[in-house]
Amino acid sequence: MATTLIVIPAFNEQESLPAVLDELRRTLPDCDALVVDDGSADSTAAVARRHGAVVASLPFNLGIGGALRTGFRYAVLHGYDRVVQLDADGQHDPAEVKLLTATLDDGVDMAIGSRFTARESTYDVGRVRFGAMRLLRLAVLVLSGQRFTDTSSGFRAFSAPLVRFFADTYPQEYMESVEALLLACYEGFKVVEVPVLMRQRSAGVPSARNIRLLYHYLRLLIVMVTTAPLRSKRPRATG
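RESULT FIELD:
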């Protein structure tokens, strides 16, 4: 049976982590959990250890990209067959991890849990953020030739080949999820979306608000457009 590592980037998430880790342990007892404490100023690391997770503590805040790259390197070092990215704020339902990993079993390299394809979804997105997301979807379609509904989802599963690739190449700037999606497409990895139901944040506060978020979206669009001509989409060898 394939071994799965759940990687949970966490920055000042001491309030939400206990419920997340307890639910994860109940729902997926055969999966290992790695909490990457991204330079938190609170008791995130101690709380994670008390609730059964392995903890990798970063000396200062690198952002989700740096935390995930740490998780990918840990997975490669310890021989895991796949990695699942899970948020520390309680938005992702551990019961739906199996939907993503089942897709990997069918030969997919990245399975993205989409908040916007499930008919029952009630996930609330602010007006500024929703408009920016629509623009990103269009940009990804133009640059990759593939249509995705949720380019910035943080609920994803990665195959072993993609884990090895991202251990050295995963983008580290804010909104890295979109850059990573494009990078996987450019390198010929197979990427699909899986409908999931997303919950609202259980505790704590998001790390970015409207003005700051708008800045990051604009930066990301510039990066996407300026780097696209330097890359070529090519099929990846199998086997």
